[in-house]
Amino acid sequence: MMPLHPPEKNRTQTFDEDRECIIWADELGFSEAWIGQHHTAEWEPIPSNDVFIANMLPQTKNIRLGTGVTIITQHHPANVAVRLAYLDHLAKGRFNVGFGQGGVPTDWGLFDLPDPRTQGLMTLEAMDIVLKLWQEDGPFEFKGDYWNVKLGEKVVELGLGNVLKPYQKPHPPIAMSIVREESMAAKTCGLRGFIPISINMAPAHKVKRQWELYCEGVAEGGREPDRSQWRISRSIFVGESDEQARAHALNGSFAASLMYLHGMLSRAGMQDLLKQDLGMPDEAIDAEYIIDNIAIVGGVDTVTHKLFELYDITGGFGTLLMIAHDWDDKPKMRRSMELMAKKVIPQLP
């Protein structure tokens, strides 16, 4: 759930629909949901995914909720550590953590952040600080290139000097988002033993390359890769028939949101990520191309077949993440989730 909502749609309505979507997913037996965070993106309007998750915990029963992702460069890492540890306690462990640096240029300006490469280095340092605060008691002092953190001598008689540790030990499951085909984040994710989450806008063979890079990082860390940990996200719409599904996807916010994501990738110089063949012209990347070649749209049989293809091309993965698109037609979107849970998923490996 990025989430994806047309800018002209009432914000309060979109937030209500996001809540309803998570509750419906929980009732249908979806195993987890990851919630995004952006500050200046009208298509992706949740600025505080931890607040949203805290709101959803008492309204759901089984589904694990995760920050997908916490944009760690836009917060002080000590604040990230204690807020997420607190949220893990509220969830009694029904909580995952995702870290990333974000890809919205206007967010970077809002927080006066440097170039993307430097933000990548900031992300690595911030993750180190969070993990140190979660796993060590102190006292210690961390002097980094971007943050300095000091946990001084404890005042035992007053209970001072201790940072709240997570409910899950040693910490909640940690994931990283992977966007580029030749992704340094994939190697970092593997090296650190985190969960890889692959982008929904890359063709299957490029997602496979992300896994290969992840495995290189895993090997450097002295571990064995586990495909069951791999999450692949896809934009999916399951209709009553192929014709109905494609018409709905092309003529509503589903297609518009895919073109928004296409525009974001283009601004970042990553338009080629969407191409099945690098020889294809940029102008060939339209909504029909994305829906037919990258998204997964159709009736139950077609969607099932396309997911088997995705599984075969990538070599297998553990969890499929269904992107939460706008409910511009609520009955159809709820029905799509129901068909996915009851008709499609039971057929998959």
Short key terms for the protein model shown above:
349 residues, TIM Barrel, 7-stranded parallel beta sheet, 14% strand, globular
Report on this structure.
By secondary structure, the chain is of the alpha/beta class. It has a single domain, classed as TIM Barrel, CATH 3.20.20. The protein has twelve helices and eleven strands. Helix 9 crosses helix 10 and helix 11 crosses helix 12. The two termini are 24 Å apart.
Distance between the termini: 24 Å
Structural class: alpha/beta
CATH superfamily: Luciferase-like domain
The number of helical runs is 12
What summary fits the major beta sheet? 7 strands, parallel
Give the DSSP E fraction (strand runs of 2 or more residues). 5-15%
CATH topology: TIM Barrel
Please state the average pLDDT score: 97
Q: Order of strands side by side in the largest beta sheet? A: 1-2-3-6-7-8-11
Poorly predicted spans: none
Order of helices and strands: HEHEHEHHEEEHEHEEHHHEHEH
Compact summary:
The protein has 12 helices and 11 strands. It has 349 residues and is α/β, with parallel strands linked by helices.
Layout of SSEs?
Elements (H helix, E strand, L loop, with lengths): L10 H18 L3 E4 L13 H8 L7 E8 L5 H15 L3 E6 L4 H6 L5 H20 L4 E4 L4 E4 L22 E5 L5 H9 L2 E4 L5 H17 L10 E4 L1 E3 L3 H9 L2 H15 L19 H7 L2 E3 L1 H15 L4 E4 L7 H15 L5
Helix pairs in contact: 1-12, 3-5, 6-7, 9-10, 11-12
